[in-house]
Amino acid sequence: MKSNVYFFPLSGKSSSLQRSQAGRAVLEKLLSAEKTELCNEVPIKLHFGEKGNHTYLKPELYDGIIDLLEEKSVKSCFTETSVLYGGERFSAEKHKKLAEKHGFTRLPVVIADGDNGEKSKLIPVDGGRHFQSAAIAEMLAESEQVLVVSHFKGHILAGFGGALKQLSMGFAAKGGKMAMHLSVTPKIKSWKCKKCKLCMSRCNAGAIIAGDKFFIDPAKCVGCGACFAICPAKAISVFSFAGLKNMLFGRRFFREKLAEYAYASHHGKRNIYLTYAVDITPGCDCEPRRMSSCVPDIGVFASLDPVALDSACYDAAVKAGKHFRGHEQLAYAEKLQIGSMDYKLVEV
């Protein structure tokens, strides 16, 4: 059975007001046509944009959506997760300051995986090739319904990013990001370790062994990343030659891992997915640089099925003249029964 994907077309270079109105229109149409009830509290999962990036989805685009939620007496917030690398989005404190600088002030900002990316829940992954469970940010794992707002654009490893990438890398706590990117067990740098045992107190798997030198038992480590996130001495490393090699050359596996994490974030939830195919750049919103659009604005898409949604965005980009890599993530996500690549486009 085909999944419905609702679409509001935008042409050329659309204004912020047009984008805001389009977002509200497709969400309103989806709620009505699919007879979907909103929960009392529905966080908006988004991306605040990296410092130096200019094509992330600006805060004004969310006004129409927020207006609709307020009219329906739905409480909401902006929510994101911390990144694995350093910079302005590494900790909750810095991340919130960046969100404020970028103008995301209309709703409260909640960093879903804690102060340093240490708060996660392991969610089962059924039928995956790479994971039996996924480390999902605690607040998102505990939310019954999330409004997942994504920006369709290119990505150096995934090929393209949309709803599935938002569900996977966007929902993952630091340990989950580490597992998808690097597939390594953290290592303790003995010359930096202060033996404060904070990492031991946060390791639910009991994988950190104390002694003259502390070390992590790879047989027990579940890859949650909490130790790396909270170590005050920065004595725990997740980077290695093998991990970097896997990240750079294992792109097919990386895309499958994204799909498995998307399964964990989507399964058993009542999520709603909305994607802006505007300011479509070759690279991700995580890149701290100015990029030019590779195709004109296409429009705003919404669905209850993230696979159908990404498929519709991908097909629209191809029709507009841009062939992104990474199509196999859609086929694998369909195999995991997250959704269907077969969709019906309903213009609003």
CATH superfamily of the largest domain: LarA, N-terminal domain
Strand element count: 16
Broad structural category: alpha/beta
The ordered H/E elements are EHEHEHEEEHEEEHHEHEEHEHHEEHHE
Specify the CATH architecture of the largest domain.
3-Layer(aba) Sandwich
Helix content: 25-40%
Radius of gyration (Å)? 20 Å
Task: Please characterize this protein's 3D structure.
With 348 residues, this protein is an alpha/beta fold. It folds into 2 domains: 3-176 and 250-347, LarA, N-terminal domain (Rossmann fold); 187-237, Alpha-Beta Plaits, CATH 3.30.70.20. Helices cover 32% and strands 17% of the residues. It contains 12 helices and 16 strands. An 8-stranded mixed sheet has the order 4-3-2-7-14-15-1-16, with helices on both faces. Strands 5-6 form a two-stranded antiparallel sheet. Strands 8-9 form a two-stranded antiparallel ribbon. The longest helix is centred in the first third of the chain and has 18 residues, at 16-33. The chain is globular. The two termini are 21 Å apart. The relative contact order is 0.20.
